[in-house]
Amino acid sequence: MAHIVKYSEAGYIGLHGIIIIAQAKGEALSVEEVATRLHSSKHHVAKVLQMMVRAGYLKSTRGPAGGFVLAKDPAKITFLEIYELIEGKVSAGFCPLDKEHCPFDRNCIFNNVTRHLTDEFIRYMSEEVIANYVESV
User: Fold this and answer.
1) Do 68 and 34 form a contact (C-beta atoms < 8 A)?
2) Is the entire prediction scored with pTM above 0.90?
3) How many domains does the chain have?
4) To pair with 111 at 20 to 30 A between CA atoms, which of 19, 87, 99, 105?
């Protein structure tokens, strides 16, 4: 089955992982705990979480009581920040194939739908914050 929008495994781990860690409300979660909740490889989860540590979104501590905790206010972390940290800057081009020259001089056969979808994706991702998914206790 084809998907118009498809996230990478790393993007999935980044967004879902930071929410899981935020929901722990300061309790350190191990890589194993996050990987188990995400049904993902421990090594892949560790790699993505370390990217977020280096960028200042998470803090990590070693040892038996160690793990990952949120380093920033979840109300100030947008989905777009995390997505772009992992995937790179999202840009809205006019051609879905990034071609410089279109064989149709007048109108794109896609009617710029990919640009509109990308603009909508950027809008949504920049408005959603991690705090929206942290349960109130």
Assistant:
1) yes
2) no
3) 1
4) 87
